[in-house]
Amino acid sequence: MLFSINGRKVAIELQRSYQHLRDFTRRQERYTESGVECYWLVRKDVFVTLSKSTVRLLLKRDFDGLLPSGGLGTGMLPELPISVLDIECEEMVQFGKLKSATVPVWLSGIINNTYQYREGSWNLD
Fold first, then answer.
1. pLDDT tops 90 at residue 7
2. Domains of the chain by residue range
């Protein structure tokens, strides 16, 4: 889904099948180069598998291979907003540390800029 609001171009990508981290990263970079904010929704199993890759990357890239004292949150990347779409639980979006919201509330957070990367996780205000 692609929409414009308040001068912003926003894409919501629903990625149902597994995709390698490098593919998410490349596609995110193309969106960014085109002036589009992209937010990803994936299945829980895809999120779990992907988080293993993002944690390894974060530790290597940002923390010299050492786990920071405050932890890594969900281990997602600040430049790659990925959340879980749980269609079995009334279409809730899961993000952050065991937090969730309905799809409309999550979209509202994106529109109002309250869905942001904080303390190692993408979260609503």
1. yes
2. 2-123
